[in-house]
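Incident review: delayed structure delivery

Summary: a single-chain prediction request sat in the queue longer than the usual turnaround. Root cause was a stuck worker, restarted by the on-call engineer. No data loss occurred. The affected request and its eventual output are reproduced below so the record is complete for anyone auditing the incident later.

Affected input:
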Amino acid sequence: KMTDEAVDFFRSLDSLEPSARARGIALHDMMAEVFYAEDVTDELNFAKAAIERHPEWVPPKASGVKVYNEVDYVYDGVVLRPDRVVEYPDKLIVIDYKFGSYHKEYEKQLAKYMDLWRKLTGKKVEGYLWYMNGDENDELLASKLDGKDYVAVKP
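Output delivered after worker restart:
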């Protein structure tokens, strides 16, 4: 039989916030189910503001735009899996979701995704690091990356 202290301890675990990594994985999985605007549910409130500001990232199904979520591609012998690629007739938008803080490696990763899609399609490619953590530093990230062919955006 467990002591009262042990029972209280395990009950307290239920109220703990999930780790940042676990939260990011869960939110990432939710976004992987979103192909078109009609797929955005109330559970995705954290992303709705950015989707409203950037409707080209999550177009309506009737638009006929192709959307690829979490599809593996081999590029220079390495498997790459961009989080989201939205293909328009004249361009592609490559999006990589981020739920933590800025790392220089993310820019390099996104640049590889963009290069892959340029080579696959010959189309113009836009790339975005989409930070969804509500961190006040996200605005700074947008400034830091501005002027390159990819940008970070705050939802």
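Verification: The two ends are 49 Å apart (CA to CA).
Action items: add queue-age alerting; document worker restart procedure.
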